[in-house]
Write a structure and sequence with these properties.
Shape: globular
Structural class: mainly beta
Radius of gyration: 16 Å
Number of strands: 13
Number of domains: 1
Order of helices and strands: EEHEEEHEEEEEEHEE
Low-confidence stretches: none
Strand content: 35-45%
Length: about 170
């Protein structure tokens, strides 16, 4: 069985957070069901330091640096799309990341409470390198992506084996 990893934002000290100058549906943007007009106009609303990953204020989306974007392209990473972002007052290029890869719903414990490890039916995974479980905005990746991010020291990113994540379930009803 393949190893899978959850990708999240690390939330570094003084990390810049950005916000769109127009309204949008954060889940549709995340899952590539909404394609913004490029460049998608953004502004820094908190912090001041830009990393390879810059969080949006909406918590579901983030921007990636040109370096990160180029790595994904050069290494033929599947399961994503990028769109150009313009951050007011910033000359560096950033791109919004949209997840197109999918797998089925996460398996939920029958009883409410904390549990360890995200699980999904392997047969529902579309074999993309980057993917989201149905009905979530989580971002999972393969070992290939995890190794690429680690080797290239992509900043402001937290990559965790999904079998080691602690989560809470309301239980299956």
């Amino acid at each position: 069985m393949d190893a899978f990893f959850n990708i999240g934002i690390k939330r570094e000290t003084d990390e810049a957070l950005i916000q769109s100058l127009i309204e949008y549906d954060q889940i549709k943007l995340n899952q590539a069901e909404f394609i913004p007009v490029e460049p998608f106009e953004m502004e820094i609303t908190e912090g001041n330091k830009l990393y390879d990953v810059v969080g949006f204020q909406d918590t579901s989306n983030f921007a990636i640096s040109e370096r990160f974007y180029s790595l994904l392209k050069e290494h033929l990473i599947s399961g994503w799309k990028g769109y150009q972002i313009s951050i007011s007052g910033i000359s560096e290029k950033y791109y919004g990341l949209q997840v197109t890869g999918r797998c089925g719903k996460l398996e939920q414990p029958k009883e409410a409470g904390f549990y360890k490890g995200y699980k999904f039916d392997y047969a529902t995974w579309d074999k993309s390198n980057l993917f989201s479980p149905d009905e979530t905005v989580l971002l999972f990746c393969t070992k290939k992506v995890r190794d690429l991010l680690k080797k290239n020291k992509i900043t402001n990113l937290d990559v965790t084996d999904i079998s080691k994540i602690h989560a809470y379930s309301v239980g299956v009803r």
